[in-house]
Design a protein that fits this description.
By secondary structure, the chain is α/β, with parallel strands linked by helices. The protein folds into two domains: about 200 residues, Thiamin diphosphate (ThDP)-binding fold, Pyr/PP domains (Rossmann fold); about 120 residues, Rossmann fold, CATH 3.40.50. The protein is about 35% helix and about 20% strand. Helix 1 runs parallel beside helix 7, helix 8 packs across helix 12 and helix 9 packs across helix 10. The protein is globular, with a radius of gyration of 19 Å.
Length: about 350
């Protein structure tokens, strides 16, 4: 075991899979010599060579399109898109080719592509470096969507994503890349902290996709969340002293509906939190699922806490984030409802 932040855990996952499976390759902008803009691929080109860690031009459609072709021909490509905001030039490749390949070929072809990309705010990156577009990808049949909240989960889930024969979009919340932040104030305790994020096995291990984690047990309220918002929810619950059960989805697709059902049927109350905009965000699907599966056990309306329904506001980054105060207000609404 070693103390790792999420960047180090992702690097360890890539190293472990490349060592175990010679068909795993990495491609993307600056992933090789430079080691990635966030250093997630640092040292891998020197270890495995330029034929397995490939520096690509600034052409996201080309990166993803190349990865699809590479995957069809027997390799396991891991494509890095430097920021989730830049994935849109490759969206047609994902929607029209990658997501549909297995179905349209009646199972004759598949392409086991993993697309890694940092998401969310927290680095003062403004509108073009801070978006959380996960809901777009959960809507695509044929694509798995993953977002970890801890270094341990990041490594285990990424290994499972790379080994999956289905394509996976793997979102990495960059606000918690470098270690914990001060969830009580919703701002980093030390910007770009190198404080370790937690204990992570140095060796190979995997976490199955589609299994949520109960990070805190409780019986008064179910909080369903993922990514950075897991830490914000924990801070809010600590401050209020409410006996809440906090569920970290980890995988958005496939979704662990059974864990959600067991929790909400037990507590009778549900709050959903995510960083992305509220309207048509993934929380809407979660709310509909809980309503369909748990209606007769609900004692209060389902509450959603999310980002503003605006373009990402550069000047008001920390106000945009659904921080502890907004989560606490949502908890009060749910707990006080008849």
């Amino acid at each position: 075991m070693s103390q790792m932040n999420m960047i180090q855990a992702i690097n360890s996952a890539l190293d472990a899979t490349m060592e175990k499976d010679p068909t795993v390759i990495i491609l993307g902008e600056d992933v090789g010599y430079f080691g990635g803009v966030f250093r997630c691929t640092d040292g891998l080109q020197a270890k495995y060579g330029e034929h397995r860690v490939i520096d690509a031009p600034i052409a996201e459609g080309g990166i993803i399109g190349s990865a699809i072709g590479i995957g069809v021909n027997g390799l396991r490509p891991v494509a890095e898109i430097q920021f989730a905001d830049y994935i849109y030039p490759g969206l047609d490749q994902i929607i029209s080719e990658l997501a549909r390949l297995r179905y349209r070929s009646a199972g004759e072809f598949f392409s086991p592509v993993t697309i890694r990309t940092p998401c969310g705010g927290g680095i003062r990156g403004g509108q073009t470096h801070s978006q959380s577009p996960e809901a777009l990808f959960t809507h695509l049949s044929g694509i798995k969507t993953v977002m970890p909240s801890s270094p341990y989960d990041a490594k285990g889930l990424l290994i499972s994503a790379i080994e999956s024969d289905d394509p996976v979009v793997f979102f990495e919340p960059k606000r918690i890349y470098n270690g914990p932040f001060d969830g009580d104030s919703n701002k980093p305790a030390v910007p770009w902290s190198t404080h370790p994020g937690g204990e992570v096995p140095d060796s190979y291990y995997s976490i199955p996709l589609g299994e949520a984690a109960i990070v805190q047990a409780g019986d008064e309220l179910s909080i369903i969340t993922y990514g950075t918002m897991v830490h914000v929810a924990q801070a809010a619950v600590r401050t209020m002293g409410v006996n809440a059960e906090i569920i970290d989805l980890r995988s958005l697709v496939p979704l662990d509906i059974e864990t959600l059902k067991r929790s909400v049927n037990k507590t009778g109350r549900c709050l959903i939190a995510h960083e992305a905009s509220k309207f048509c965000g993934f929380g809407a699907e979660l709310a509909a699922t809980v309503q369909e599966e748990c209606f007769w056990h609900l004692e209060a309306p389902i509450e959603r806490v999310a980002g503003w329904d605006t373009p990402y506001p550069h000047a008001f980054e920390w106000e945009y984030f659904p921080g502890q105060e907004r989560v606490m207000a949502g908890i009060r609404n749910v707990m006080e409802a008849a």
